[in-house]
Design a protein that fits this description.
The strands form 2 sheets. Strands 1, 2, 3, 4, 5, 6, 7 and 8 form an 8-stranded antiparallel β-sheet that branches. A two-stranded antiparallel ribbon has the order 9-10. The protein is about 40% helix and about 25% strand. A hairpin with a 6-residue loop joins strand 5 and strand 6. It is of the alpha+beta class and about 325 residues long. The chain has 11 helices and 10 strands. The model has no long low-confidence stretch (mean pLDDT about 90). It has 2 domains: about 190 residues, Sandwich (Jelly Rolls); about 100 residues, Homeodomain-like (Arc Repressor Mutant, subunit A, Orthogonal Bundle).
Length: about 325
């Protein structure tokens, strides 16, 4: 069969100049503050990207140490090493890693990393493409994805992921031309495998971001929406965005005029209302839903619910 058009794009560069390598990696990952140092290895680097506008395979050899900050604004990436090691999300949800299990890069915010003497592979997906696949999988409208980069996927899921990566690599990295439909199907099956493997939450597209919320306040609100179902506290939120609790409170008051604990409580009340509206008295009780979302004192919960929605939770459930 003759293939008229191979949709893959290929970029490759290599060398032995450390300054050139630093500039190249900063540009490739839209990074900042990169610093590099030689190790006991003779320095060489090699960087290769193969893929299309939806999915790409990247491989990198870097015989030195590098530290800096990056933010993946337009893509999601899973990484694994064949050699070397490092740390990611330094000073926040820090994770150390070496050869072995793959790991998602943090999403939705800048993060600091450190690597040394690595042979690194990545699979990267264009942001809106993977969000569309997640929406299809979960039966909802597309929205931002929040991956827990510190979570360890289940062993069975990892085995399936590794098999899919091997199959996808045989297509994407093939020397012969690849048909567009074959590459599209490979992207789709690999995206679905990623979503089945790596713990994540999908933020609803109608998540209410307060007017004026920017920077770390916006990041904090998105984090609250993503993890309101867990016992997360405003202390956890502050640590996640790199602020003290007092700093977070001041930022919220300055930008949106509300305390962060009030914001988190309101998000949870909204989630409770959705559950009560879609449930019946046969399926659940007000008390069970309230406790599930962290409200232990039912009297205070009912009062807060009535203040926010103009009716008591039992009325919502019965309605």
């Amino acid at each position: 069969m003759t293939i008229d058009h191979d949709p893959r794009m290929i970029f490759e560069t290599s060398g032995d100049d450390l300054d050139d390598a630093q500039r190249m990696y900063e540009a490739a990952y839209e990074g900042s503050g990169f610093s590099t140092h030689t190790t006991d290895r003779m320095f060489q680097y090699r960087f290769r990207v193969v893929g299309d506008e939806t999915m790409s395979f990247r491989s990198s050899r870097f015989d030195a140490s590098v530290r800096g900050e990056v933010e993946l604004r337009d893509e999601y990436a899973v990484m694994w090493l064949a050699d070397g090691g490092g740390r990611v999300d330094i000073g926040r949800d820090e994770v150390s890693f070496g050869p072995g299990n793959p790991m998602m890069f943090p999403t939705g915010r800048p993060f600091e990393f450190e690597l040394a003497d690595v042979r690194q592979s990545l699979v990267q997906f264009e942001r809106t493409y993977l969000e569309g696949m997640a929406a299809e999988m979960h039966g909802v409208q597309p929205g931002p994805l929040v991956f827990d980069h510190a979570a360890t996927p289940a062993p069975d899921a990892l085995r399936s992921w590794n098999r899919q990566v091997q199959e996808a690599a045989s297509v994407v990295l093939a020397k012969a031309a690849v048909a567009p439909l074959v590459l599209a199907e490979t992207s789709r099956t690999t995206a679905m495998a990623l979503l089945r493997t790596f713990p994540h939450r999908l933020l609803a597209p109608d998540v209410a971001l307060p007017q004026g919320a920017t920077g770390r306040v916006r990041e904090a609100v998105e984090y609250m929406h993503a993890f309101a179902h867990t016992p997360v506290t405003t202390t956890d939120v502050a640590e996640h965005v790199g602020l003290s609790v007092r700093g977070l409170q001041q930022a919220f008051q300055r930008q949106v005029g509300i305390a962060p604990n009030s914001m988190l409580r309101g998000i949870r009340l909204d989630r409770i209302r959705e559950e009560l509206r879609h449930g019946t008295p046969r399926e659940l009780t007000v008390a069970s839903v309230a406790v599930k979302w962290g409200f232990a004192h039912l009297g205070r919960f009912s009062a807060a619910y009535a203040t926010r929605f103009g009716e008591y939770p039992r009325d919502t459930l019965q309605g």
